[in-house]
Amino acid sequence: MDFLNGKIKNIYFKYLAAAFGSALITSIYSIVDMAMVGQYHGPEGSAALAVVAPVWNIIYSLGLLMGIGGSVLFSTIRGKSEGQEKQSNEYFTVSVIGSIILAAVIWFVVIFFDRELLLLFGAQDNTVSLAREYVEPIKFAIPLFLFNQMLAAYLRNDKNPALATGAVLVGGIFNIFGDYFFVFTCDMGAYGAGLATAIGSAITFLVMLSHFFMKKNTLRLVRPTRLLGKLKEISITGFSTFFIDVAMGILTILFNRQIMHYLGTNALAVYGVIVNISTFAQCCAYSVGQASQPIISTNFGANKGERIRQTLKYALGTTAFFSIFWTALSLAIPNVFIHIFMTPTPEVLQIAPDIFRCYGISFLLLPLNIFSTYYFQALIKPKVAFIVSVARGLFISGIFIFLLPVVIGADSIWFAMPITELLVAIYVVYEMIKYTKQLKTERRNAV
Fold first, then answer.
1. Quick one: CA dihedral 22, 67, 273, 195, positive or negative?
2. pLDDT band at 393; cut points 50, 70, 90
3. How far is 2 from 15, CA to CA, in rounded Å?
4. Cα gap 360→342, rounded to integer Å
């Protein structure tokens, strides 16, 4: 696959198919778990897994920090000139080292402080035991989830997106059937869902490792120079993508606590379903960003602005499709989603449509805002990507989550994200136009 001379349309849609499959199946780990646990335990099961959602966000985001941050630099260096394999592989090596350090830290925290963590994330007495039951088998596989995210990013940039997708697909398929077998056939409930997810992640990891035994593999572990300096570069470049997932966890925590304070367990159960639909929408946006990033990064390194604009055209068209698709579904069939993810009570079915239709408006702009962080990263504009991710994931959204219920009323909390996405999108469009225009003459400083 020739990023610098091949036909952009063919390359983009081939990578989009692979990235979409990978991102979608990754989301299925938590989606299927919530559906199975919700069907087995009812609304309390859905509420318990809504509390666990931030744990996933943190783990995945750390993998993206090392994977996207390092692979952007990896591809940019290779786009500059031939014969840069050793220098680019220094970033791969540093990403591996950073992933090991981060995995060790999060592993320690989850193993020894799981109860405290879940209480912080909004668990109550009636949900904390179910949440801990689900997390118990996952404790043993936590590093694998992080490494799977990091390796998938590098496999895409090493021109093997199909394997990244295939690995996640095999693990995801096992997770789907394993969930049903362990949860219902073996009558293990929430513990069984966690066990299936842990085994699925191990399968994905083993399949990804096969890349290193292929002839097309150019990834090598080498002795890096300026280890701390490169780790800093990777962290700065990958921070905005990292913060997108962290922010989803932060927002889930804020929503969990505010919902329990103002609206109660039934509303939290509905929000747990919304989190999973939002995860699907975000994964679609991730797929656009992950398909575009290797092409844009490599061509940015080669200063081929016209090819970047062509890639952007296809990416924006794809985000528009996903925006309309998820918004339409949220407005049209809210209670269908509720039935998929739990065995609902009449009270839950009564309140769900209004909640879905208020929150679902945010899906119109969510894909654009998330894709923009990948775009700005690929152009080595980490400051702009940082502003976008922090504004939508913490600053603006956090203000509205706390402010709206106090000023307007409890139910207004569901408009926090639509307002946030609109304000962020205005900034995104302005910056995207500005930097895309500069591609004609801009020369990038050496990495």
1. positive
2. confident
3. 12
4. 19
- Is the distance from CB of 11 to CB of 315 less than 8 angstroms? no
Please name which of 378, 270, 261 lies closest in space to residue 315, comparing C-alpha atoms: 378
First to last CA, the chain: 24
The pLDDT tens digits for 119-149 are: 887 777 778 888 899 999 998 899 998 999 8
The Cα-based distances of 98 to 106, 107, 234, 390 in angstroms read 12, 14, 9, 22
pLDDT confidence of 209, banded at 50, 70, 90? very high
Q: Cα separation of 223 and 209, whole Å?
A: 20
Q: Is the pLDDT of residue 75 over 90?
A: no
Contacts of 330 (CB under 8 A, 6+ apart): 277, 337, 356, 357, 359, 360, 363
Burial degree of 125 (CB within 10 A; 0-12, 13-18, 19+)? exposed
Note the pLDDT tens digit of each residue in 344-378: 888 889 999 999 999 999 999 999 999 999 999 88
